[in-house]
Amino acid sequence: MTGAPLPEPAASPTATEDGVPSTARPPQPRWRQTLGLLARNPTAAVAATVLLLIVLMAVFDESLAPSGPNEIAVEDRLQPPSLAHPFGTDDLGRDILSRVVLGAGVSLRVGFLAVAFALVVGGLIGLLAGFYGRWVDDVLMRFMDVLFAFPAVLLAIAVLAVRGPGAGNTALAIGIVYIPVFARVTRASVLGVREEVYVRASRSVGASDLRLLSRHVLPNAAPPIIVQTSISLAFAVLAEAALSFLGLGTQPPNPSWGLMLAEGRGFIDLAWWLAFFPGMAIFLTVLCFNLLGDGLRDVLDPRQRTLMAGSGR
Amino acid sequence: MGVSVIVFGLVQLVPGDPIRLALGTRFDQETYDALLARSGLDQPLVTQYFSWAGRALTGDLGVSFRSGETVTSLIAERLPATLTLAFASILVALLIAVPLGTLSALRPRSVVDRVATVLSQIGISVPEFWMAIVLILVFAGTLGWLPSGGYVPLTEDPAGWAQRLLMPAVVTGVVSGSVITRFVRSSVLEALGADHVRTAQAKGLPGRQVFTWHVLRNALLPLVTVTGVQLAYLLSGVVVVEIVFAWPGLGQLALQAVQSRDYPVLQGAILLFAVVFLLINLVVDLLYTAIDPRIRR
Amino acid sequence: MSATLLEVADLRVRLRTPRGPAEVVNGLSYTVGRGETVAVVGESGSGKSVSVLALLGLLPARLATVTGSARLDGEDLLTMSPERLRQVRGPGVGMVFQDPMTSLNPVLTIGRQLVEGIRAHGEVSKAAARERAAGLLAEVGLPDPRRALDRYPHELSGGMRQRVVIAIALANNPSLLIADEATTALDVTVQAQILDLVAGLQSEHGTGVIWITHDLGVVAGIADRVLVMYGGRCVEDGTVDDVLERPAHPYTRGLLGALPDLASSDDGELATVPGVPPAPTDLPPGCVFWPRCPVRSDPRCATEQPPLAVVGASDGALPHRAATWCEEGSPR
């Protein structure tokens, strides 16, 4: 009775007790195919391109930023957007564009770390639960249910209260929140392929569990997990911004987008650009991850096994 | 039960000695020992848990380290504001989502559908605190139509109450509404394709009646679940919006408790959120049983 | 008795599919007389269901283009106003769909679903409509009809649900009943009961029936006339005796080929013809059946679609026609 209604995987219709067709082999990796299909979906393609630019921006932050992002120039404080400072300057005269560029690194790093953590831990739990079933499944998923019963933001706040603020702990907090989501999606996905003919075939010729998992189950259970990853990245970036905004996430003087928004809030009447541009950056990044997730879902997961976008909010 | 263990365990991990912190500069060993004994913090953890859980069951969540008020009364004071905001938000969300989602589903790939898809995608992606700030800037700042925040009880000043509720409710409502719009769209689309709709048409029912009773009714049944889940998320998701609009709700209380390491309050607030979350799920299940004959027995 | 009830002429349905337009029904013409039963036979994908859904305007307008004419009592179903068509659905034509599990609304009571159909066609009080609904359920053989009114579909078995679907179709005493694979999903005993039921109602009310089925046993049991469809076309039609005893088209002969003993069979499925039917987006240029035809005796088979022409002598009042270049025709 806890949590969002999750689509259960359809019982696999191809599983047969007898007669394993000789053609039963897992489909080959479909990177090329996926990329091709994705390119035909203009929205997703644009989103992917923009994201690539943002990631590049985050990687080359120092060399891209027009001036030192933490460079204080009191005489230039609260300048409106101009040629010298396209996004204006803040109350300490720091260039907002530079800080937004640098903030990309902070926000994305926390986002990627959080999702990576949730993916590894949640994915492992889901894999074990789905593959071994029975009591393993019961114990693990019951625990996930309990974790899922906590409101996301509150859980993250509580984790941060325990661990103290900071980028690493923010990633951990968001990661913990998303563990049950990945556990559920992975489990559902694994259940879907576990009974497929080629898995049974491999098992019948005595393949080890590890080999089965790595060679057959995981690659074929991957698509919904990939989609979920993209969508979760959107929310991780959003959550990082929210926590930093509350003063619990990234700490000054590091220019996280959420933190910049919080700092700009005090000057909203005087200088709208302080809060506007970091907000725009968050919005664009989140939007692109969501659009990419939708595009990937259409291509990889036509049966829509992943959670709806926004289920984490 | 599992929830309470985690709440308790989590808060136990908070670094720093809360009593030392609460006493601050007025520290002296005697008061410290007295407080330690009174709060039971010198007991073993398991004992602490059971005494806390036992008292929590009777509604006693302890005493705030900071203000000395009981946690229960602090929460009771804040609960109405949070509930008001959450319910107002869900109302806004449904008012947006049901018509928009239905229209999109009726004309897939039309202009309306495309616009609705873009809007809901934007609504899902926009950071709510940013939207809140922009709204305050426009409606409280530039236009000066609405107060920028705060709260007055409905009983004292209904007009002021509504004015102050409007912006926060719209912000959270738009976000939830975007999620629900997508859900309504796919749900109505699915219902439109159902076999029984053809049966209803073949009976010669007027189109309106077919739509209301055989499409919409079926499509909106699962909406109960989604609305419940969204309401549960709203209850916790309003934390940020409460801060921006200076809305004196539970989120604000919880955040203050974190900042001041007032951990009985934090414990109480989180436990309450979790319990409310579970309660809403329970209510949704019961409600669903009541309205869907397939589950009823 | 054979005053014409329904006259379908040159019915064509074109569907928009992801793989381009498809001629799903291609120039279908037939008539149904009062009290007469016409069986439409063919594999799935032959266009049987689409052809009857088109009659009642039940295909999605965005995807389907329907041309030709279908006169019910002289009035063209395909060109009438939407409001007039709504009035005809029910009292003019009742329809029973294939799957009793999905063709009832799961969240409304049986009674409600019957009553709304009755009240959509005339001023009837709720109580009177309920009374009539209970009567209908009794007529289709539902035990304890009054209590059944307050039940939900999932509380009934498949056979019982299909009786309810039939009751709904009959609620306004239609002059034409269309049954689309109405008994396919049911077990044999229930199927026999429902066939008896429809036959009884038919002789009582003089209803015309179009019965779409895979099942040749059913055809032999109830049909006056048979229409064999393949690839969206009528490939053979005639009286039930002509078509089943003296099939002229190679496809019909293929279908009948493995049928054991027609007289005693009541669950005989169609015999399998090797191969699969052509995709409607990709019909062969000549005879639609050519790719699977074991005969192919004429050079025109591959290039030219044969017209529907009278074959052999018929002992009935109706001509026995087949669309084939195959000359060896007539009895097996």
Automatic annotation (TrEMBL), chain A:
<dbReference type="InterPro" id="IPR025966">
    <property type="entry name" value="OppC_N"/>
</dbReference>
<feature type="region of interest" description="Disordered">
    <location>
        <begin position="1"/>
        <end position="28"/>
    </location>
</feature>
<feature type="transmembrane region" description="Helical">
    <location>
        <begin position="167"/>
        <end position="185"/>
    </location>
</feature>
<feature type="compositionally biased region" description="Pro residues">
    <location>
        <begin position="1"/>
        <end position="10"/>
    </location>
</feature>
<feature type="transmembrane region" description="Helical">
    <location>
        <begin position="143"/>
        <end position="161"/>
    </location>
</feature>
<dbReference type="InterPro" id="IPR050366">
    <property type="entry name" value="BP-dependent_transpt_permease"/>
</dbReference>
<feature type="transmembrane region" description="Helical">
    <location>
        <begin position="270"/>
        <end position="293"/>
    </location>
</feature>
<feature type="transmembrane region" description="Helical">
    <location>
        <begin position="225"/>
        <end position="250"/>
    </location>
</feature>
<keyword id="KW-1133">Transmembrane helix</keyword>
<protein>
    <submittedName>
        <fullName>Peptide/nickel transport system permease protein</fullName>
    </submittedName>
</protein>
<dbReference type="InterPro" id="IPR035906">
    <property type="entry name" value="MetI-like_sf"/>
</dbReference>
<dbReference type="Pfam" id="PF00528">
    <property type="entry name" value="BPD_transp_1"/>
</dbReference>
<dbReference type="Pfam" id="PF12911">
    <property type="entry name" value="OppC_N"/>
</dbReference>
<feature type="domain" description="ABC transmembrane type-1">
    <location>
        <begin position="104"/>
        <end position="293"/>
    </location>
</feature>
<comment type="similarity">
    <text>Belongs to the binding-protein-dependent transport system permease family.</text>
</comment>
TrEMBL record, chain B:
<keyword id="KW-1133">Transmembrane helix</keyword>
<feature type="domain" description="ABC transmembrane type-1">
    <location>
        <begin position="79"/>
        <end position="288"/>
    </location>
</feature>
<keyword id="KW-1003">Cell membrane</keyword>
<dbReference type="GO" id="GO:0005886">
    <property type="term" value="C:plasma membrane"/>
</dbReference>
<keyword id="KW-0813">Transport</keyword>
<keyword id="KW-0472">Membrane</keyword>
<feature type="transmembrane region" description="Helical">
    <location>
        <begin position="83"/>
        <end position="106"/>
    </location>
</feature>
<feature type="transmembrane region" description="Helical">
    <location>
        <begin position="165"/>
        <end position="184"/>
    </location>
</feature>
<dbReference type="InterPro" id="IPR045621">
    <property type="entry name" value="BPD_transp_1_N"/>
</dbReference>
<feature type="transmembrane region" description="Helical">
    <location>
        <begin position="265"/>
        <end position="288"/>
    </location>
</feature>
<feature type="transmembrane region" description="Helical">
    <location>
        <begin position="219"/>
        <end position="245"/>
    </location>
</feature>
<dbReference type="Pfam" id="PF19300">
    <property type="entry name" value="BPD_transp_1_N"/>
</dbReference>
<dbReference type="Pfam" id="PF00528">
    <property type="entry name" value="BPD_transp_1"/>
</dbReference>
<protein>
    <submittedName>
        <fullName>Peptide/nickel transport system permease protein</fullName>
    </submittedName>
</protein>
<dbReference type="InterPro" id="IPR000515">
    <property type="entry name" value="MetI-like"/>
</dbReference>
Automatic annotation (TrEMBL), chain C:
<dbReference type="InterPro" id="IPR027417">
    <property type="entry name" value="P-loop_NTPase"/>
</dbReference>
<protein>
    <submittedName>
        <fullName>Peptide/nickel transport system ATP-binding protein</fullName>
    </submittedName>
</protein>
<dbReference type="GO" id="GO:0015833">
    <property type="term" value="P:peptide transport"/>
</dbReference>
<dbReference type="GO" id="GO:0005524">
    <property type="term" value="F:ATP binding"/>
</dbReference>
<dbReference type="InterPro" id="IPR017871">
    <property type="entry name" value="ABC_transporter-like_CS"/>
</dbReference>
<keyword id="KW-0547">Nucleotide-binding</keyword>
<keyword id="KW-0067">ATP-binding</keyword>
<keyword id="KW-1003">Cell membrane</keyword>
<keyword id="KW-0813">Transport</keyword>
<dbReference type="InterPro" id="IPR013563">
    <property type="entry name" value="Oligopep_ABC_C"/>
</dbReference>
<comment type="similarity">
    <text>Belongs to the ABC transporter superfamily.</text>
</comment>
<dbReference type="GO" id="GO:0005886">
    <property type="term" value="C:plasma membrane"/>
</dbReference>
<dbReference type="InterPro" id="IPR050388">
    <property type="entry name" value="ABC_Ni/Peptide_Import"/>
</dbReference>
<keyword id="KW-0472">Membrane</keyword>
<dbReference type="Pfam" id="PF00005">
    <property type="entry name" value="ABC_tran"/>
</dbReference>
